[in-house]
Amino acid sequence: MGAPGPSVRRRLRRLARLQASGHPQLAQFVSARLARRYGVYVNPKAVFSTTMRMPHPVGIVIGEGVRIGERVSIYQNVTLGGARVGDWQAGNYPEIGDDAVIFAGAVVVGAVKIGRHAIIAANAVVTKDVPDHATVAGVPAKVIRVSEPR
């Protein structure tokens, strides 16, 4: 059996196209297939680009109101979603900026904005906004470095 990466990428692109073209039932089918086969749950109502990368697609959860920018990398066992019961009604979900990297085991919950080119360290728990070009780590996550824009 080949590496899971290309198959997951193909299914994510298909899910994004189905969302954009207004086929919610087919999007739900592809989402369920991703969850069953690869352990990657992407709610069909999440908004993401086809340029999103999952180098190690295992145990990733992306909730219904999450918005993900261009060229975002998400590693294994990451959770992006609401922080409390009922957040789906209030729309309290993360928004991930372009070119962000979220490393293994990180949790990003609630109505937070992750800036462009931000780095979320492994096992960090993010509950507050992260500025552009910042690196955050810890529980709860704190800014440990801000890089100069390139």
Question: Keywords, please?
Answer:
alpha/beta, 150 residues, UDP N-Acetylglucosamine Acyltransferase, domain 1, five-stranded parallel β-sheet
Write the layout of secondary structure elements.
Layout (H helix, E strand, L loop, with lengths): L3 H17 L3 H15 L2 E2 L18 E2 L4 E2 L4 E2 L4 E3 L5 H4 L4 E2 L4 E2 L4 E3 L3 E2 L4 E2 L4 E2 L7 E4 L4 E5 L4
Parallel strand pairs: 1-2, 2-5, 3-6, 4-7, 5-8, 6-9, 7-10, 8-11, 10-12
Antiparallel strand pairs: 12-13
Helix pairs in contact: 1-2
Can you put this structure into words, describing what you see?
There is one protein chain. With 150 residues, the chain is of the alpha/beta class. The chain has one domain: UDP N-Acetylglucosamine Acyltransferase, domain 1, CATH 2.160.10. The protein is built from three helices and 13 strands. A five-stranded parallel sheet has the order 1-2-5-8-11. Strand 12 and strand 13 form a beta hairpin. Helix 1 packs antiparallel against helix 2. The model has no long low-confidence stretch (mean pLDDT 90).
